[in-house]
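Inputs:
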Amino acid sequence: MSGYAYYRGCLAQKVAKELDTAAKKVCEKLGIELFDFEEFGCCGAGVIADKDFMLNIAINARNFAIAEEKGLNIMVICNTCFLTMREANHRLKTDSKLLEQTNKVLSECGLIYKGTTKIEHFLFILRKFSTLGDYVPKPLDAFKVATFYGCQALRPTEFLGEEDPENPSTLEEIIKKMGAIAVYNESRLNCCGFHSFAVKEKPTLKLAAEILKDAKLKGANCVVTPSPCCHSILDGYQGKLKKIAGIKFEIPVFHLAQLVGLGMGLDGLGFERHIVSPKKLLQEGGYL
Amino acid sequence: MNVTFKIFRFDPSKDGEPYYKNYMLDIDKGITILDCLNEIKWHQDGSLTYRRSCRSAVCGTCAVTVNHHARLACKTQVVDIISIYNTKEILIEPLKNHEVIRDLVVNKDMFWDGLKKMKPWLLPEEKSVFKKPHKMLAEQVAELEKSIDCIMCGICNATCDIVAVNPKYIGPCALTKAYRFIEDNRDTCKIERLKIVNKNGLWDCTHSYGCVERCPKKVEPAHAISCLRAIVLEQKAGFNPGTRHAEIFTKGIKWYGKPHEVLLLAFTRLLATILVLPLGIKLFIHGKFPAMFPKRIKKHKDIKEIYKAYNQ
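Outputs:
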């Protein structure tokens, strides 16, 4: 079996279903075969790690073992899944005692994890396609894109280490290959606050407002992110964010897979599901 | 190699606004940012003000912001910065999230006040330290080692996104210090310390990991915060949105193999959930409203077995 075990995460099952749709379409176009596993459970999103370290390791090891059994590495489309799974995998691979203890529990489910599964993010898989630009029939030259990485695609290096978290360039390089203009914005490496949103809303919204304000002031007409968590805040809460930022903006926020899909000329990327509609931008650029 | 240092300057006694001044230096391999600041002060502009002391990444005094990221000036090689940013212009500013006193010197009163709240000293059983030695297992010491290494440079607080927007948040450094004493088996003040961390933002951390990435001593404050949360939950030492969020998230996975997003928000926020109703309506209209009755994952009994093994 070649390709990846596809781990869509929880948000892309309903709230960000459009990301799931777009990622699958882009992968199909690039010839990346994805295998669905209905038995995959939640990664714990860092919250289970706060509650019980060993439980967090075990629920992740279960997913790794399921993919390993089929000889597949896992592709994630969410930053939080990426970090949580990478951390659990790192700990299992570097601590034989932990792996042994975890396998004892997994054996109750008829599973064993040998430690061979790799976790890869859609963002960094795209980076491997040096010819990505060849898939673009009509460059997205009307798009002035403010990139927003989301913390958990880059930090901490110990578990992720895909590129320097101080000055990354993967997202910008992909945007440029799509023929769009990457607008440099200082807040591209900031935090949107998603993981404290449910607990304390006000500080989260201040963080998110700053990101969109910066994008607007730098002349961007849209934002792109590889994280459905950040997307849900930046798109879903934009009405409130405008008031907090104190300036007017209406900035469509795209999932990375959507923008790449659009560049490839793909249809059905779920733009109608956005709270802030990108219709005007798409029409002006002649993409609708 | 000629390098331009663009340095933040501000003397409140005479400058209306901060400004940036450029200085040029000829740099060799092995030169640190602190060496450059010294060179500028001693040979180009004696008015440049910054803090310095040990030159060995031990005292934590010389923390500044280099190209938007907090670093110890004495531990940062100029050639490394040039390599990361592919530029020969280096921007040096004071630490973020702190009031500027002058140039690169910041007021750390709030930082120290936060630490003091955590009572960063050992509170052993009265007189016990004089009667007999208190044993600690090697594993217990190992657990504390990272947090003991903290040099209180303030880089984690200067990097923290939440400190920037929430003045009530005590910050990663103070929470790490609290963890260092809560986990110390000689300390007798655990319950009181847990109350203090709960009141001062333990659940405000948003897992952005800037503190872990930037800490010059690899203390991993976010890990300490995560461990503190686990202790609070295990001891049932708090009932607040943070503890409720963690509990109901964990339950959701037990029940369905994935979180129950509607219950998660409702149980975390209780009555305040009503404030997100307008968003809920928007999500519903756009087909994004989370499932009220989530479908269980296939082989959900595996998850139950795993939870059972860890008594959850």
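Remarks. Chain B has a mean pLDDT of 94. Chain B has 15 helices and seven strands.
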